[in-house]
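Deliverable D4.2, example record:
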Amino acid sequence: MDKKYLSVSQLTNYVNRKFNVDPYMQTVFVTGEITGYNKRSTHKYFGIKDDDSTFPCVLFAGKVKQLNFEPEDGNKVLIKGRVQVYKPTARVQLMVDTMEPDGYGARLLALQQLKKKLQEEGIFDFEKKKIPEYPKRIGVVTSKSGAVIRDILKGIHQRNPIAQVVLFPATVQGENGPADIARQIKRAEEIGNLDVLIVARGGGSIDDLWTWNDEKVIRAVSECNLPVITAIGHQVDMSLTDYVADLSEGTPSYAAAAVTPRTYDDTLLLIRELGNRIYINTRNLIQLQKKQLDRCLDSYIFQQPQRLYETQTQHVSQLFDRLKQVEQNRFVQAQNQLTQLNNKLLAYTPQRQIEQGREAVNQLDLRLKRIASTSSDKRKQEVEALVKQLNSLDPLKIMDRGYTYVTKDGKVVNKAAQLAKDEEMILHFADGDVTVKITDIKEK
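Output generated by the structure prediction step:
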């Protein structure tokens, strides 16, 4: 019988196919201890072990982001995944879908890791927003039924019946709780007309209250722009959400009291007290000003008002006398200036001015004639020079000196190569043209 050998790839594919079709290998739940976990790599390659065996695991980056704790070597964990063969090395490995700490101690470990992470981000170090003393609209994120909302409504309406309460119903425990609470906090903030927000739930087991240690809820409270009051569980209960609130109260009833620090009756009493203070202060002020007015009326200014302007009257009289003297002096100066101007005017009569003008005109006329004569002679010389230059360049003048030019068939001939023997050409002289016949051509 012939033996049939498989290639390595065929064997690997066969084994992998076996795992793929085996329903028990498609969804595997494994518990064990982490070993060889590398925090620096993007995809995590590690092992899950017990006392007898170690099984290789792969956790891709997208799954890493979904973890609610930071895995470390030695952590006992619960893993859900599927078995698969890595073909290049024919390695059997567990592809991890979810991983969570195993047991209550692991849950506390995850909580401590989350708290450390948030502390390093500085999320717990913030300036707390002031809770308004007289809020008009109060938002409440809690369950729509139960004692919590009843206690809050009762407390607020007893202390401030005119305040409006807006409920944002949320699932306050369980798997869907964190996302629902965060969504309702965001919704309350987006409404934009609330003065303060209460986030609350009643007492319960540690599992029920664990929702409030979820990172989604913590960040939603931390990032909310409204003043936030938390009231989670009983007085002894404390969650990470309480650390990022502007005010944390032990119970929902305490939160209702904190959001309405003054009762309606206290406010009315305060208004009455302030009204009495205003009345008393106003009355005292009026009495004080009346006394001041009486003192002013008894003063000499109101009894003998003429004393107020006697000095000013005397001063005005003195100023009037000084002004009159100044006017007289200016009048005398003006008369003297007028006399001097008349004397100057006599020295410069119109007749004298006319004679001086005529003499100046004559001088200018002589200068103009001299300039015109000089300029005319210069221009005449320039014109004569230009005429001489033109005459020297005139073709007819050149021909008068014995020069001529040759044409053939109406075109000027300037080279011997343009002519042929026995052809006729015309010689042009200054006084006429001559037609000649070529008998011989000598080229240079």
